[in-house]
């Protein structure tokens, strides 16, 4: 007796369809949770400026002291106003390596307020 060579392909197709259905159901339940305001666990760094600033350390160096690619931020408050810092964080600086949109607007506001105190 010979085995039907299409059975393995059919089995893979059935597994794929079942997986797609399962992930769709999971996605729909998560969509409902988000719509109801339950986004899961709270993001601990959401309002902690020092935790948010960790996303800046890749370019601005440890302790935000500066690096070869980006200036230090330890005295950013003496160079820029809070509004200017917010604009830089959100929009970046054209013609430089400073990208915009690395953090959310809410986190950008918290970070700008904190950086403005760094003199």
UniProtKB/TrEMBL annotation:
<keyword id="KW-0349">Heme</keyword>
<dbReference type="InterPro" id="IPR051811">
    <property type="entry name" value="Cytochrome_c550/c551-like"/>
</dbReference>
<feature type="domain" description="Cytochrome c">
    <location>
        <begin position="36"/>
        <end position="119"/>
    </location>
</feature>
<dbReference type="InterPro" id="IPR036909">
    <property type="entry name" value="Cyt_c-like_dom_sf"/>
</dbReference>
<keyword id="KW-0479">Metal-binding</keyword>
<dbReference type="GO" id="GO:0009055">
    <property type="term" value="F:electron transfer activity"/>
</dbReference>
<feature type="transmembrane region" description="Helical">
    <location>
        <begin position="6"/>
        <end position="28"/>
    </location>
</feature>
<dbReference type="Pfam" id="PF13442">
    <property type="entry name" value="Cytochrome_CBB3"/>
</dbReference>
<dbReference type="InterPro" id="IPR009056">
    <property type="entry name" value="Cyt_c-like_dom"/>
</dbReference>
<dbReference type="GO" id="GO:0005506">
    <property type="term" value="F:iron ion binding"/>
</dbReference>
<keyword id="KW-1133">Transmembrane helix</keyword>
<keyword id="KW-0408">Iron</keyword>
<feature type="binding site" description="axial binding residue">
    <location>
        <position position="98"/>
    </location>
    <ligand>
        <name>heme c</name>
    </ligand>
</feature>
<feature type="binding site" description="covalent">
    <location>
        <position position="56"/>
    </location>
    <ligand>
        <name>heme c</name>
    </ligand>
</feature>
<dbReference type="InterPro" id="IPR012218">
    <property type="entry name" value="Cyt_c_BACSU-c550-type"/>
</dbReference>
<keyword id="KW-0812">Transmembrane</keyword>
<feature type="binding site" description="covalent">
    <location>
        <position position="59"/>
    </location>
    <ligand>
        <name>heme c</name>
    </ligand>
</feature>
<dbReference type="GO" id="GO:0016020">
    <property type="term" value="C:membrane"/>
</dbReference>
<dbReference type="GO" id="GO:0020037">
    <property type="term" value="F:heme binding"/>
</dbReference>
<keyword id="KW-0249">Electron transport</keyword>
<protein>
    <submittedName>
        <fullName>Cytochrome c550</fullName>
    </submittedName>
</protein>
<keyword id="KW-0472">Membrane</keyword>
<feature type="binding site" description="axial binding residue">
    <location>
        <position position="60"/>
    </location>
    <ligand>
        <name>heme c</name>
    </ligand>
</feature>
<keyword id="KW-0813">Transport</keyword>
């Amino acid at each position: 007796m010979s085995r039907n060579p299409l059975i393995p392909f059919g089995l893979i197709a059935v597994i794929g369809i079942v997986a797609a259905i399962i992930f769709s159901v999971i996605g729909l339940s998560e969509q409902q949770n988000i719509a109801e305001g339950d986004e899961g666990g709270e993001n601990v760094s959401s309002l902690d400026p020092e935790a948010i600033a960790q996303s800046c350390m890749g370019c601005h160096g440890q302790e935000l002291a500066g690096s070869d690619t980006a200036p230090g931020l330890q005295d950013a408050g003496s160079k820029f106003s809070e509004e200017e810092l917010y604009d830089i964080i959100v929009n970046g600086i054209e013609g430089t390596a400073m990208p915009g949109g690395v953090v959310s607007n809410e986190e950008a506001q918290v970070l700008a307020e904190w950086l403005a105190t760094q003199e």
